[in-house]
Specification:
about 120 residues; mainly alpha; two-stranded antiparallel ribbon; 5 helices; about 5% strand
């Protein structure tokens, strides 16, 4: 997993408001705990509201608020339909489409879209 994708996954995990250990985040992202320690230092240095330390765990001090995504119902339906089509087994971009669909459901919970975590 590339660093940008890993950092994104770490932030998404931390958004639940719970304490997460480096070992848990390492298992989730497929890297060592040492890599997670470095990633957390980097996130904190860039201004991300991350708090914690080695041996205890990490948590976001304040919730991250993302700007609203304004899609019409027809646009959202087209997006979901396309992602589900591409997300079918056998498509070389299936994993990416399923991951993106999950992100859309996370960003737009009011839409009622159902998607499994990637």
């Amino acid at each position: 997993m590339k660093r940008d994708a890993r950092l994104y996954d770490i932030v998404q995990a931390l958004r639940d408001g719970r304490l997460h250990t480096a070992a848990e985040l390492a298992r989730r992202t497929g890297v060592s705990t040492r890599t997670i320690w470095r990633d957390m230092e980097m996130l904190a240095a860039t201004g991300m509201p991350v708090e914690g330390e080695r041996g205890l765990g990490y948590i976001l001090r304040s919730p991250l608020v993302l700007p609203p995504t304004m899609l019409t119902p027809d646009e959202l339906e087209a997006l979901v339909e396309g992602l589900r089509h591409v997300g079918q087994e056998g498509n070389p971009r299936a994993r990416a489409a399923r991951s993106l669909l999950y992100k859309v459901t996370t960003l737009l919970p009011q839409s009622g879209i159902e998607a499994e975590p990637p």
